[in-house]
Structure formats: structure tokens, C-alpha cells
Amino acid sequence: MMADIVEVAMQAGNFKTLVSAVQAAGLVDALKQSGPFTVFAPTDDAFAKLPPGTVDDLLKPENKDKLVKILTYHVVAGKYLSADVKQLPDGAKVPTLSGESIAVTFKGNDIYVGGARVVAADVPADNGVIHVIDAVILPPNL
Questions:
Q1: pLDDT tens for residues 106-141?
Q2: Is residue 82, in this structure, part of any structural domain at all?
Q3: Do residues 106 and 86 make contact, with C-beta atoms less than 8 angstroms apart?
Q4: Which tens digit of pLDDT belongs to each residue from 4-32?
Q5: What CATH number is attached to the domain comprising 87?
Q6: Can you tell me whether residue 52 is helix, strand or coil?
Q7: For residue 64, what are the domain limits?
Q8: How far apart are CA 46 and CA 49, in angstroms?
Q9: Is residue 140 part of a domain?
Q10: DSSP secondary-structure letter at 51?
Q11: Which candidate, 56, 19, 61, 25, places its Cα nearest to that of 39?
Q12: Residue 142 lies in a domain
């Protein structure tokens, strides 16, 4: 048996900030459900690109709603492997769990979601798939 999305992210070791954020947002149980989910997972380096203090600020209890909105903007209901994503038209809007849609664009063989590049695709989990991205994507109405 494989691990669920949260366990896969924890085991990978380069998603410590994402895992802390998911825990602070109270989304661990949601991401352990059967799904399936497609998660666009920013690495620790991606979080480090945000302005200084942003992550610490978002992890504060009073900013939980904002954090939930950002994190759910990285999650799509359903399992979309990179081959599925590449079937979409360039600029397609995909609905996320935050209620906002995210644009999928292509440059050569690279897939971009909300402007972030997918640097590793199709990381399997029991309840979906993870695509590793190089930036944190922020919803438009934050």
C-alpha cells in the first residue's frame, strides 16, 4: 500500500513548509480522504521565494482562512496525470478546491499552473497525484 498525499509529502523531505502549512490550516484530514486529488505542491524553495515573513504570517492562527484559501488553490478534485493535463487547451481554467480556477499553460514540454512551473510530475499517492511546482501560487481574490 502506498501513502496518501500528506504522507508522501512528509516523506519527500522538501515540502516541510507545505506540510506545516497544511497542518496549521487544519487540512490534513481533508487531504487524507479518498479523493482523488491532484495537488500542485510548492517545495520549501518555492515558499522561500515569497517575501520575507510571509510564511510566518500565514501560519498565525488569525490568518487561517487566508492560508486555507491559498492551500486549497493548489488542489484540484480528481486525479490528473501530466498526460491528462497536456490534453487541456493552453490557458485552460481548472477549478480548484478554493472555489477559484487556475490557468494551465504550456511552454514547450513544460507545464505551468498559475505561472508556476511543474518541476516534477506524477508523484503517486494512494488518493491522487502530486505535481511539484517551483513557486507558490496565490489566488486572485486573496
A1: 999 999 999 999 999 999 999 999 999 999 999 987
A2: yes
A3: yes
A4: 999 999 999 999 999 999 999 999 999 99
A5: 2.30.180.10
A6: coil
A7: 5-133
A8: 5
A9: no
A10: P
A11: 19
A12: no
